[in-house]
Amino acid sequence: MRRAAPTCLLAALALLGPGCAAPSVGTRTGAAPAPAAVASWSAIGASVEGRPIETATIGAGPRRVLIIGAIHGDEPEGLPAIDPLIDHLLASPSLCRAATVRIVRDANPDGTAAGSRGNARRIDLNRNWPASNFAPARTRGSQPLSEPETAALHTLIASFAPDLVVVFHSTPGGPFVNYDGPADREAEAFAAAAAQADPRWRVVPNIGYPTPGSMGSYIGIDLGVPILTVEFARRHDPEAASAAVVEGIEVVLTMHDGR
Ligand SMILES: [Zn+2]
Questions:
Q1: Distance 254 CA to ligand 1 centre (A)
Q2: In degrees rounded to 5, what are phi and psi of residue 173?
Q3: What residues contact 14, with CB distance under 8 A and at least 6 apart?
Q4: pLDDT tier for residue 109 given thresholds of 50, 70 and 90
Q5: Who surrounds ion ligand 1 at CB < 5 A?
Q6: Distance 159 CA to ligand 1 centre (A)
């Protein structure tokens, strides 16, 4: 009897990448003996200060989902959920058959290291996208994709062609799920699944302030690709955040696009 789990591993091992030069953020060097099921990380680029922007791929199914663990360096609440999510996916042959999940652990490793919203040049990486509403500003860059972090992510998105993008943030008003583009069903499904363990989770369709040049504006509104902005509470309990991510991501991975 064949087991399905190796499918997950093959997809993950296919992206075995170089060791990581950065001294921070829990990188996997690949030097240790590999356990039976573990994701392999590779770099899609480097930050302004040279830290790798790590990515891993889990599963080999038709639904293509990109998950970004952090993009604002002072909003690290989603980062502890990444490894539990990967463990959950690797242990689930049905999820591996349903979806190909591309995970970017941290799109802003310099900001995370410094505890700052922007990157090392103080550019907000969630305002530096070639959206129709991009407007140059000191904190948004002089032009879209002026930063190595956004350029690397943009290249990844163009090649991976996700059906759904999920980005983790945090805000004092969290936890909730905001969305752009045709993502209302996914947002409701994620929030409902997360709310089973924590009733605070809800959908907030309108974030309430302009977001020129944001990923949501570009990917959701301009490209028409569903994108969820998952806003944890500030200092969200890591175990609760992980549980919400596992439950919420599982349900959106198995949704079919019936629009
Ligand atoms: Zn944010």
A1: 26
A2: -90, 0
A3: 57
A4: very high
A5: 72, 75, 169
A6: 25
